[in-house]
Design a protein that fits this description.
The chain is built from 39 helices and no strands. It has about 800 residues and is an all-alpha fold. The chain is elongated and about 135 Å long.
């Protein structure tokens, strides 16, 4: 059925175009032979094709444009005729003899255009005559296109200030009156279109009306271009007349479009000075009109106007723009009880953007807008409208973008209240936006109170909201938690007391994060605390002797107690390897603070974790090397404590699963008995014992390999042990002599030449490199050269 209708319309259009072109051909022939009577006859017949009612507006427009092109040629002919002596007044009378009213009015408008140009009559009289005569066509589509033609041919002939058609003092008023009258009549025709035809085709008609809206809107554009329309005339005449027509037409499509047109075509300063009138029309519009978009676009224009120059800001204060807009939005939201929450939030978002541009220094205004939004949201409960959620994110992001400073946003008491209405997923998005703002602007959050307020805002990333346990993407979760970790590192205050309060506040929050989050958030907290410890190290620690010192001020001991409790939680997550590393970091910091009992406690905790929680053989190797490396740097321990810890470490080394791992851990332990710059920690004999034990283990590893695989494996372990010997030889350990090194070199050479050894290019290269190093040291001369001289490489 629809297809048939479209085909029929194509046929009707083709027939109309054919008729138009045929008559246009005869009209051209008459024009070429200067035959005025035939030209008028055929042009009237050509224009009769526009009398059709069978075409949709879209197809009618095609036909109209062809007729328009022909009329331009006819207008040129009329101009030529007047030059040849034909009276324009006679011509104006002559065209009125056309048989049908529509061709007659098209011809009248065309001649009228030439009549005005001839200046034989005032422009205002001709225009008034034409606009009145056009009332003869009351068919909506035909009438709209006719009046559009009148608007088109007259727009450059209006009696405006500075125009060649300017008349007396009232001339601008005449121009305005003409355009307003044409606009009013066109709008009436446009609105009337909805009542043409059966009710079942209402949707189709609305679509057609939407296609024709620019014909009506062009009148407002013409009005805005009239030079003589100053603020006073706009205020007293133009705006009231336009709004009267908008309100009285009581048509949803027309009201929305025309309000938008008014906002877009007239200057910003006019809107500012007539804000009350413009806003007063909004509650009078039909309830179904999308007022939120109208007001949002108005506020967007005014925001851009305010941002364009600081010089215009006093105008906004003078007219009290904020309070007028605020009241108007309140009135509209109250009047439209069915307005969806998305609409209300959009209005508040636009108002906040406006406020931030016009009154950046008035935080109370911004908070007032957020408060009104919160009040509206509180009547609706949690949001399930994704568009409303997006608008709230835009609303909350606006202060961050404007001030580039989260601290300012934290002063807005209603900010966190509005954020509560976001679903957990969007809450996380907003929290991430806040953290990114802090990172980008390097914002310093320097007091515990501000940290508390900030963490209140980013709760969605710190812990699960309302018991929400939805599945989250692993990569997204990691990224979110890494951003929280970076944030913790940025919190800083030079005052140790305040910094300690910040650390306690952060700890309180992250402890609620659950086992998945703690491995991300505890390490940055630990390192922030250790940073504070190092700050305090340079200060006098006399308070430690005061029995009340721990209570009254921040001391390293107090921080270490907090850290012990914090890392203990991490070890139950379980994340034993991470907890062990952090215990060792704390032990090293306690060593620098000269707190032996604290350092010993941290080491003990690390050892307990190693024994009870670290079961994977690779993790054991890594953990053991960390413990040996940290213990080697510790200088705070007395002989007894150090011996206990060293003995434990060497014991763990011998108990590793794989022989090569055992060997490397044991020769690593040799460093525990020889510490540079610490004469009381240089025991050459025990170093030699460790290295010999490492050799025995390396030998045992080869024998096991030989028994199991039929080959002794690589000689790499022996080369590594040789390098350890050389290290302690250079450190002048009396037990490591040139003879011992020489015998080890011989042993390695023998091993490498053995048929049972598995070829290992890496071991060969390492050994060759070691021998080159010995040669190099020999050639150095001096004391080093002498020590190396007996060794034959």
């Amino acid at each position: 059925m629809v297809a048939n209708g479209v085909e029929d319309e194509e046929k009707w259009l083709a027939a109309a175009i054919a008729g138009l072109q045929q008559n246009a051909f005869y009209m051209h022939r008459a024009l070429d032979s200067n035959n005025l009577r035939d030209a008028l006859k055929y042009s009237a017949q050509m224009l009769s094709e526009l009398r059709t009612s069978k075409l949709s507006p879209h197809k009618y427009y095609e036909l109209y444009m062809r007729a328009f092109d022909e009329l331009r040629k006819l207008e040129m002919f009329f101009k030529e005729e007047t030059r040849r002596g034909c009276s324009i007044i006679d011509l104006y009378e002559l065209v009125q003899h056309a048989g049908n009213i529509l061709p007659r009015l098209y011809l009248l408008c065309t001649v009228g255009s030439v009549y005005i140009k001839s200046k034989e009559a005032p422009a205002k009289d001709v225009l008034k005559d034409l606009v009145e005569m056009c009332r003869g066509i009351q068919h909506p589509v035909r009438g709209l296109f006719l009046r559009s033609y009148l608007s088109q041919v007259s727009r450059d002939k209006l009696p405006d200030i500075g125009s060649e058609y300017e008349g007396d003092a009232e001339t601008v008023m005449d121009a305005v009156e003409f355009v307003l009258q044409n606009f009013t009549e066109m709008n009436k025709l446009w609105v009337r279109m909805q009542h043409q035809g059966p009710a079942r085709e209402k949707e189709k008609r609305e679509k057609e009306r939407s296609e024709l809206r620019d014909l009506v809107g062009k009148n407002l554009h013409v009005l805005s271009q009239i030079e003589g329309v100053d603020l006073e005339m706009y205020k007293d005449t133009v705006l009231p007349r336009v709004l009267e027509q908008v309100v009285n037409c009581k048509d949803e499509l027309a009201q929305f479009y025309l309000m938008d047109c008014v906002i877009q075509v007239f200057p910003d300063e006019y809107h500012l000075q007539t804000l009350e009138v413009l806003l007063g029309a909004c509650p009078q519009l039909q309830p179904s009109v999308d007022v939120k978009t109208v007001l949002s676009r108005l506020m967007e224009r005014l925001s851009n106007y305010a941002a364009s120059s600081a010089e215009v800001l006093p105008e906004f204060l003078q007219v009290e723009a904020f309070s007028k807009l605020n009241n108007a939005i309140g009135t509209v939201i109250e009047a439209q009880v069915d307005m969806p929450i998305f609409g209300a939030v959009t209005l508040y978002s636009s108002l906040l953007t406006f406020t931030l541009h016009v009154h950046p220094d008035r935080l109370d205004y911004a908070d007032q807008v957020l408060g009104a939004c919160f009040k509206k949201l509180s009547s609706k409960g949690k949001l399930d409208d994704s568009r409303a959620t997006k608008q709230i994110v835009a609303l909350l992001s606006a202060p961050l973008e404007k001030y580039n400073d989260v601290v300012t946003a934290l002063k807005l008491s209603n900010y966190p209240k509005v954020m509560e209405y976001l679903d957990s997923e969007t809450n996380k998005v907003m929290a991430t936006v806040i953290i990114q703002s802090i990172m980008k602007n390097k914002t310093n959050i320097s007091t515990a109170g501000k940290v508390e307020a900030l963490f209140e805002l980013i709760t969605g990333l710190i812990k699960d909201l309302d018991g929400a346990h939805e599945e989250v993407d692993e990569d997204d979760f990691n990224e979110e938690q890494n951003s929280v970790a970076r944030l913790i590192q940025m919190l800083h205050n030079d005052d140790p007391e305040e910094m300690y309060k910040i650390i306690c506040t952060v700890r309180k929050w992250i402890m609620t994060g659950g086992p998945r989050r703690l491995p991300f958030t505890v390490p940055p907290l630990v390192f922030s605390s250790l940073k504070l410890v190092r700050t305090l190290q340079g200060q006098d620690q006399g308070q430690d002797e005061n029995p009340f010192g721990d209570e009254s001020s921040t001391t390293p001991k107090k921080i270490f107690q907090l850290l012990n409790q914090t890392i203990e939680v991490l070890s139950t997550v379980p994340a034993p390897e991470l907890a062990l590393q952090l215990y060792l970091q704390c032990a090293e910091a306690a060593n620098d603070s000269d707190l032996e009992p604290v350092a010993y406690e941290f080491f003990t905790q690390a050892y307990i974790l190693y024994e009870e929680e670290v079961s994977d053989s690779k993790a054991q190797v890594t953990a053991l090397h960390l413990m040996i490396g940290t213990l080697q740097r510790m200088v705070v321990f007395g002989v007894e404590n150090r011996d206990t810890l060293t003995h434990k470490a060497t014991g763990y080394s011998a108990k590793l699963l794989k022989k090569p791992d055992q060997c490397r851990a044991v020769y690593g332990c040799a460093h525990l008995f020889w510490v540079d710059d610490q004469d009381n920690m240089k025991d050459g004999e025990r170093v030699l014992i460790c290295l010999k034990r490492a050799l025995r283990i390396a030998n045992a590893a080869q024998q096991m390999s030989n028994a199991a695989r039929g080959s002794t494996g690589s000689a790499m372990l022996f080369v590594e042990i040789l390098n350890k010997y050389l290290y302690f030889f250079e450190k002048e350990n009396p037990q490591i002599t040139a003879a011992v090194i020489q015998s080890l070199i011989e042993l390695i050479k023998t091993e490498m030449q053995s048929e049972s050894v598995t070829p290992d290019p890496g071991a060969d290269a390492f050994f060759a490199s070691t021998l080159r190093y010995i040669q190099f040291q020999k050639q150095k001369g001096g004391a080093i050269g002498e020590r190396y001289e007996p060794i034959k490489a």
